Amino acid sequence: MTIDERRIAEELRHLADDATPVDPLALAARTLARRRRRARSVTGVAVLAVAATAVAVLVVPSSNGLGPDSAARVATLPDNTPEQSRLVRECMPQGGPAHSMDGDLRIAGQGSVDDFRVLVDYRDEGGSTALVGSEAGFVLCTPTAQKDMADRPVLTYWGFKAPGDLDGFSGDLQVDAYTAVRHPYTVGERQTQKEDIYQVVAGRVSDAVERVEIDWADGRRTPARIASGFFIVRIAAKVRREPDKTSGEVLLVSVPSATVTAYGADGRVLEEEENVVFGPVNRGD
What is the edge-to-edge ordering of all strands in the sheet holding 35-38? Predict the structure, then answer.
């Protein structure tokens, strides 16, 4: 049998031209290790399994029979107070989001400090962490007196894909971040260097959500703070210190999976995401 290599090459090129490009970031967003569950007391559900990761999606049928109900979404970003504007500027000293590998390198295409608002913050005895966002995406800001040692303000696009989709989530709950932040500080007359590490979960909710709670795999349960359709929570991470030949000491942070649950005004579960796994910021960069 004669093989026409030129014709085969031409056909392969045609197939490549006609193929739809795969966006790996969008694919990763769709295959996050999580299980989403809508209200439990309903009949008629749709179950979707993606790749090797089990993802269950339960949709509440609309009362009018025209499809799933769609709760009101975040329409506009809130205005900053003077104090919040100052926090945003201090969080992004270069004038906007920074490169993940170089805090002095601003990524101009991701906006300026004027585009960002303090959406919601979580305060505890150790300080605070704020979800600071624009129409495109968000950064996490943890104020510290040691500004040269603060975490880089790295942007994550809403929906994990540029140019960002602030309103583009279905259901009542969208977990946009489960990551860790640092709070460096000094103590004592000798200014001994210290650093606290916090696990942070943040995201968006519909207008129907009155309460969000996070169940950590280690048994802890924490209510989130909600404002203007956004939520955030942080807890002190469990850290283990071990000797290291290069740096002298290395910090090992335990980051177990979490379950995030959104409740309505009557206390009913509106949506729940199970097995939310720890991940980096700047997905979609």
Answer: 35-38, 269-276, 258-263, 211-216, 221-223
